[in-house]
Amino acid sequence: MINIIIVLRKSLIQTHCSFPHSIFSRINEPFDFLKEKKLISYSLVDEQEITLQKNSCDLIIFSKHVSDVSVCIAESAKQLGIKIIYDLDDLILNFPKYSTMHLTETQKINFYHHMTLANIVTISTPYLQKVIKKYIDRETHCIFNGFNLERHYNPQQHSDTFCNPLKIVYTNADKLKLHTFRNGFFDTINRFLNKNNECVLEVISDHEEDPKKFSRFHYLGAMNWFEHKKLLMNANYYLGIVPLGAEEDDAEFEFNACKSNIKYLEYGGLKIAGIYSKNPVYTEVIENRYNGLLVENTEEAWTAALEELFQNKQLHRTIVENAHRDVKENHSVSKSSKLWMEVFQKVMESGH
Fold first, then answer.
1. Residue 352 and residue 119 in contact, taking contact as beta carbons nearer than 8 Å
2. Taking the model in full, what pTM does it have?
3. Which helix (H) or strand (E) covers residue 126, if one does?
4. Residues facing 295 on adjacent strands
């Protein structure tokens, strides 16, 4: 059994919580699966509280760490012969202007120091794996995100019947990831809400600035990873909307396209139909009109998609069932766990 320490850090963008959602969605979920199989044991330890000794663990994992203290921990692990994995699921070296986070020069230096210390660097998507080659000169291993349906989906609690008001969900940790279509997006959603009084928009967000631009909405604030999954399971949402800047936002496109597809896994896995911007994040996993609606970031395209999903109940049912099946068959936590285990074995067998 491999003994692992996952180093926790303060979120780079989320102000409401101590630790970032990405650690729970990307690492906690598959590691719990492997722990249940008795293949690994692991603990989550705040980077401010770690004191490593030779037998503390076999392997230590960092996730987007850029602090001085995290570099000190990695240097200590190296000296003690503890193997190191650095995981990356965002292009943190090139945050766009809309983001609330930008790395300082010291943090960038710390990131590159981690790259020299890590035995293996893991990446969340093929697109990020391709782009990151411009920033780091080393081999990376792609491990896609998996969703734990057994943990988060309960068919006995799920209802296929929708009653008024029909609920739309919008979730965003950082600010709205749109530039060119930013005002057009709010105008489109507001026109739809004003036209369809039987619909209500619920917003889950760390920041209130963007939601205030919706004409009518329920603000649910921020919530932790597990609360969010429980809400998505039980709230009987008819639709999830997932805007993301695409090729029309040239300056931000590279960063946006390197995001993870976790919103599709959540909505698809929990039987919520989704409308997604036509960005590589989603075009790689969604077939239009089969397991989701892919749209250009224009008012015409978003308006047409919203109206069709509310009028065409058969299309809605088709998307819900196909997306759920796709997540179950192709994006399960068991598949991502297998990839993690292969990396663990590789790093433990390495001689450096």
1. yes
2. 0.93
3. helix 126-131
4. 277
